[in-house]
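Batch manifest line 471
LIGAND: flavin-adenine dinucleotide
JOB: complex structure
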Amino acid sequence: MGGIIIKNIKLFLTTLLCLTLIITFSLNISANEYGEIYETDVVVIGGGVAGITSAISAAENGASVTLLEKNPFLGGKVLLSAGTYLAPGEVNADNEVKYNQPKDLLNIILNDHDEIDRLNRLIAARSIETFSWLQEQGIEFHSPEASGFIKTTESDGRDVAFPLIERAEEVGVDVFIETKGENIIKENNEVIGVEAINTNDNKKKFKADSIIIATGDFVANENKIARHNPEYSELPVGSIYSSTGDGLTLATDIGAATTKMDEIILTPTLESKSYINITSLLRTSLGNSIIINHDGERFTDESQECQALSNEILSEMEANNSDYMYMIFDQNTIDNIPYAEKYIPHAFEGESIEELSDKLRVDKDILKASINEAEKGRKDLVEQPLNKLEEPPYYALNIRPGILATKGGLKVNDRSQVLDKDNNPINNLYAAGDVINCKFDSGYQLGTLLTQSFVTSRTAGIESAINSLNK
Ligand SMILES: Cc1cc2nc3c(=O)[nH]c(=O)nc-3n(C[C@H](O)[C@H](O)[C@H](O)COP(=O)(O)OP(=O)(O)OC[C@H]3O[C@@H](n4cnc5c(N)ncnc54)[C@H](O)[C@@H]3O)c2cc1C
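JOB STATUS: finished
ARTIFACT:
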């Protein structure tokens, strides 16, 4: 009997050892005084859409890939977003895509600015191919009638993130959640790995031929905002708490250059208490919403780009000595943009304009006039008229401008290689998504950030895989 137990224990231990060896071998793990050491072709730091997309693209191009994410979940800030993507093309009722010229997109996003660099051109040109690639990954886009350029999902940014997370698993990306990239290892002028720490304080070292930084922007880092953008440091932030700019510190510590650090992207419409971002779709002719002051008057062109509109709302708030303005919409808005349903718990509601006016304490005749004149001053209504708000119930949200994103970031070239202060690529180091400087010089246009994130992260994934395979 005792012999059988010992035999079974031996068998168990041998099996355990074999399994451990198999796992260790397949993940290339060893250990030293720093902790566990892993070897892989490509390490991606940051598991938002840019990191996940880089990881999938590198794996699709033959690299073994490890993805580090400091949060307990993947997805990053797209989970808070409406998931709109900008590409020059139309999707018709049969879901067929007709493409326009990439230069149309350049015109929109650059607003006739002179400085069109290679990366801008690349983003515009690849926005179409990337859009098709995203569809192949299982993301279902459709195009709201309001604009042929804007692609949006049925519900919100989760419809963008979840298919990508599934796809990363399918292509064999090794994911380490709750693992924070702390240091990029550089030896003999080459980046060779990443030191990381998990939430149990276990240190890990990841050796790799290529490293991609996709850690997002620094919008949630109060100190960095105060240092670079003191003018806006009092504004509320409508983004994810983990956007602390880690990747900027990691890369600048080893000589990377940054640019545009003093520029930020404002969103005109944060819900004034929760700081939930009210999607700009509500301000298109699909949403038909209007923005009024405390007298019930419209005072701005709701359709204008975010920066200019934010500044007008801030001025009106100051003139009214108030912390917020009102955004008014109706049931048609909700029917057209089901995503907007999630705003209802934050909204005042009235079965009639009179009832809503009473709740807001604004003059009902002035509010009615504002609704009737909703088209006045709007520059976006060249082809289609605006539907009047006339489908009860009517809703009003308290809104105020806040910070959506920081424009500053790492300088990269059109191969997503991180550049040093002399504009030379740092060997083996790539970056993509919000951690790179925002390429768009005009104010924020809905969808451009995801277009930039996806195009640059596809590039980073492909280039890093090629770099690793060449070693
Ligand atoms: C409310 C809101 C709505 C938006 N709506 C739209 C929209 O409709 N259309 C559009 O184009 N854009 C939109 N955007 C912008 C868009 O969501 C972002 O441009 C895009 O999601 C950026 O992806 P990212 O992966 O670069 O960054 P993030 O999503 O910020 O991901 C970075 C990830 O890196 C992780 N990380 C950070 N530091 C470390 C570290 N040291 N180690 C490991 N992991 C780390 C973070 O936890 C995070 O998960 C919106 C943004 C916000 C805030």
